[in-house]
Known about the structure:
Strand content: 25-35%
Bound molecules: zinc ion
Largest sheet: 5 strands, mixed
Distance between the termini: 68 Å
Amino acid sequence: MLQSSRRKPIESEKNDMSQDKSTRDLLQIKDQNIINFKVQDTSRDALRIYADLTYSVSVCPRCGKHKIVKNGAKSVNIRIPNISERTALLVLRKQRFLCKACGHTQIAQTPIVMKQHQISQNVKHGITKELTTDRSMVSIAAQYNVSTNTVSRQLVALGKQTRPAYNGLPSSLCIDEFRSTGDQMSFIAIDAKKIRSYHHLAWTKEQRYWRILPKSLLSKE
Ligand SMILES: [Zn+2]
């Protein structure tokens, strides 16, 4: 509960805090502003973890006055990494704040999920990690129970270096072929001048974009 008129006994408060710590450790949530964890496992689909996100705000970011009051909460469903192969959802009640001076409202934010997003940073980091291995996006999406588009967006977010170079071939090109998965042969091509800068991303890049290099592109040089 976010607001309670009756003061809880000290012992019960201690238990709540220790339970919160255990759940927080288990879910790898570092944000201490997330409290009152409750796990509900009644439905057959996702495992739901309920929690509250609240903290104090003293100054209004819009008018700068000290007239902020707590004004209810907004519940959001956040995808967190699976727990023992079960799909897990964090149902987070985010505190809403109202400035009595200017009427500006804001909702509490946490580093575990980006503003207005519903997929936790931990899930995104997991997807990023999987994208460096030789797996299809469909398979990664299935593992994290997200859409293929989400995986694709994450790949784009990895940066410009992981995008294919459509604007022509580099002046110096290193090429090779190798046996990859099973009996399949793959072709790799690396921009010789940039090899140092994206060395650790090279495998991801080549396997995703350069494996099937169009003949037209090769015949240019
Ligand atoms: Zn204000």
